[in-house]
């Protein structure tokens, strides 16, 4: 385990095992919502802390772990310590009450999912509550601990697609841990077969599920029909409500009873679906935003929160654009396709239908989400443009958030262009500072989906430095601005020839005439992001991208700039003269 010299003792759960045979262990605990799995996790955490163990707890939200900590504290207050029967006492020393201490050195502490991935303090045990709500890459990182338990909900809102049930289970099967699976079938907070539990399950749609896979497995863009579904229709048809809500649950890491109420009652929400032979196969939840009066926009600009206006709020309060609340837009709150019919273009078909419906009725379509390379590619392929990338990670997913627009009117186009330019102007510095640890492909995808032109106002001196690095003995540090501008010009707007074929290249012309330079490879683009824009050390970039050494990495960087000189240096007399000196 990662604890190294900290502990010579075996991992928890490895009882009666001699030291030479110590093994890492993983436990998966499944239960329906409300059965008491968080209470069970708390009892386990308290017991382990009473034995002197260091227990690290993580969950999508600190609130998810409240029951766990309450049960752990109760047990620590009532149970004797393992080394002699003394009463173990629990204290909450952290300001947020996130650490419980037991006599004998044990403790139970909380860390957000992204922070917990680094296993701070080398814990003996990691307990992951609502595990299915977390990305697979975070779940995999917890397997570096010697003992880990994943608590997850089988039915009851905490779905997140099939990441946990399929992809992560495959990783569990292949890992070195001894894996034990447990199902909590008898409730802790209810008596067996308690009618209250049954009523709550049905009333809150805790068991909502999309249609059976066989009913939609043949769905394709040509076989589906698009339609709007009103709240009245959902309230009158429980089967339809369950199908729609079941798909929406799978599209998001955390769903609460309030979401069901909003689906039925919120005046600014719209539901649109694709149906295959009468069965819902894709669903989108839209929120109407913007169209705000001057007084509301002023209040928002000065810090007031206006419910139901997520995108205008970010652009007004954070990005200081008081006019951003004027245009009317529809934000894609959630979009989901049945797992049996994914990767067939149904999501794109649904977005195209939504665009056609609201073109003329709104100024833009928008979306905000935790950025991954796959999602950035999907939204870009559907015409959405990057206008913002957050500089702090989401505590639950560990991802940076991307905001994207698809303009529908002149007002929407003006809003998108304005923020696209501002994004272009700030992203270079952000990548070198707050976004320095951003995933290389996330950065590539976000930049490719920005349509703002990058002015290449390089001086003759800067061009000489660039040519010196590309073809001669020059040094990158002599004029770093020039290299950053060229990198942004190559990466912003999808100009690279290796971009998705369905990107709108006609809207991405640079302000400098492009020559016939060799297209950059994806690896070279990652090199530009990591070494030039994020200013990471060459040895770190070399290791991440598979170069044999830092020297080889820098040689590859020079080769990449050869292509950019060919592409952007056409008809520059100073540049051509400099190239001739090196035979370039």
Task: Describe the 3D structure.
By secondary structure, the protein is an alpha/beta fold. The chain folds into three domains: 180 residues, Rossmann fold (3-Layer(aba) Sandwich), CATH 3.40.50; 225 residues, Gcn5-related N-acetyltransferase (GNAT) (Aminopeptidase), CATH 3.40.630; 123 residues, Four Helix Bundle (Hemerythrin (Met), subunit A). It is 40% helix and 17% strand. The protein has 22 helices and 15 strands. The strands form two sheets. It has an eight-stranded mixed β-sheet, with helices on one face. A seven-stranded mixed β-sheet has the order 9-10-11-12-13-15-14, sandwiched between helices. Helix 1 packs across helix 2 and helix 18 runs antiparallel to helix 19. The radius of gyration is 27 Å and the shape is globular.
Portion in helices: 40-55%
Give the domain tally. Answer: 3
Shape: globular
Instruction: Please give the radius of gyration in angstroms.
Output: 27 Å
Helix-strand category: alpha/beta
Distance between the termini: 52 Å
The largest sheet is:
8 strands, mixed
The CATH top-level class label of the largest domain: Alpha Beta
CATH homology group of the largest domain: Gcn5-related N-acetyltransferase (GNAT)
Keywords: Acyltransferase, ATP-binding, Nucleotide-binding, Transferase, tRNA processing
EC number: 2.3.1.193
GO molecular function: acyltransferase activity; ATP binding
Domain N-acetyltransferase: 224-409
